[in-house]
Amino acid sequence: MSEVPTKEITTPKTETKVELKEWITGGDFENFQKELLKGVKVDASGKTFGEIDASIAITQNHKGIELVVVSVNGKIENVLSELLKLPKDDYQFVLSAVNDVTSPKDSGSSVTNTESS
């Protein structure tokens, strides 16, 4: 498989340059989803129960950043720490771009049987 393409965004306030992956693998997506689903149990009837720690949203944000952000101002080390130092508006700008990559997409297409009889 080829290398994942990246794109660069610039934050509005501090003009920080952030390089992001354009997509993540299915395996990365499943690992990302595991963070959200920790603590949720489903019984045989499909009903969910259990408790979810509200701080899981922060943990999932951080996991998304670790999966998607390649560099901050050209530095590949400690990207999460660098982003957490940004003003809130810039951080949220980057987080929105990360969420665009990590959020499930409804492609609007369905699988159809292409076999002819």
Could you describe the 3D structure shown?
- This protein has 117 residues and is an alpha+beta fold.
- The chain has one domain.
- It is built from 4 helices and 5 strands.
- The protein has a 3-stranded antiparallel beta sheet. It has a two-stranded antiparallel sheet with strand order 3-4.
- Helix 1 runs antiparallel to helix 2 and helix 2 packs across helix 4.
- About 5% of the residues have low confidence.
What is this structure, in a nutshell?
It is built from four helices and five strands, in the order E-E-H-E-E-H-E-H-H. The protein is of the alpha+beta class.
Radius of gyration: 18 Å
User: What gap, in angstroms, lies between the N and C termini?
Assistant: 34 Å
Beta-strand residue percentage: 15-25%
Number of helices: 4
Overall number of strands: 5
Overall spatial form = globular
How is the main sheet built?
3 strands, antiparallel
Q: Into which percent range does the helicity of residues fall? A: 25-40%
Low-confidence stretches: 109-114
- SS class: alpha+beta
Write the H/E string, N to C. Answer: EEHEEHEHH
Q: Please, how many domains?
A: 1
Mean pLDDT: 86
Across the major sheet, the strand order is: 1-2-5
